[in-house]
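Mods, move this if it's the wrong board.
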Amino acid sequence: MDWLINAAYYVIPFVVLLGILVFVHEFGHYIVAKLCGVKVAEFSIGFGKMLWGRRDSSGTLWKISAVPLGGYCKFLGDSDAASGGSDTDELSEEDKKYAFAFQNPFKKLAIVIGGPGFNYLFAVLVFAAMFFAYGKMDFPPVVGEVIKGSAAEKAGIQPKDEILSVDGRTVKTFQEFRQEVDMNTDGTVDLELMRNGRKISLTVKLETIPLSVEPNQEQKPMLGVSSLTTVEFNPIELSLPEAIKEAGTMTWQITVVTLRGVGQMISGARGTEDLGGIVRIAEMSGDISRSSSWLDFVVFMALLSINLGLINLFPIPLLDGGHVVIYLIEIVIRREINERAKEYVFKAGFMLLIALMLFATYNDFARLFNRWFS
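Not the wrong board. Structure tokens:
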């Protein structure tokens, strides 16, 4: 019975999280399509066999399907859920006015961008609501505690040292400091810090600290310091416009850091073991739901929404970014790309996505094995 309860702790939060994010993404496509005068034939959360469905007054079939690992928005005239082709032979001249395939590339581009755009909008709204309700708290990049035996202690870092930069990048908060250390790929960080009014430069080799982590937690090379907690920090109250501005800034910073990480993977500077998939999302959502507050779960959802929006903008066929490239080309050349060429491109994209999914799933299970059996 215990295994069933533990499974529920992971499955239920995962299904809720993925369902909300998929709805947000597909609703972005849906609402922009409606604004552009395109009819939506189906709006599905999940794939495969329909478990529940209802057709609204405009003719859209809203449904929940059996496999909760995504969703789709199928437009009038689409031959498949990915809008990778069209089936317009049986459409009347009147229906063609509302079919996706017969829209100009500017409308198609707007509809495609609508999905990732709503993922970003969702994240901004979550962060803005959080900042407006609770204020914004930035801990200064000041060392509070140095863990015994850590790389920081060996390098001579002391409590109350103020970190000025990491690998040449200026940091203004402890979060930025920790983020830059995490982005390091060669295992050695160059630090500039301030101690008693004097600047000090250090080169520190990161080390794994087995005693500093909880059982089953992933171990990785780290500096070994914590933030200053001996002083009480009061959140800065923000007006609604200020909260929205801060939320936008935070969303942009997360996007930039994510792109830096992807760039490091592509260049080979960072290992691909950090690439995770569905299993890892389920693992993280379950861990957060068990050990953290509902607010942490919502923040995690916003972070994942940014990643979902960003990944969908990558120029890979079948993803929204692949469609964006095609419609931009059509705008430039002022004609549609040959359907046969599109078909080959989408088939190649499908194979690439399957390969990436299999690789990410392999990483997920390898991490789980190391987590529970090493």
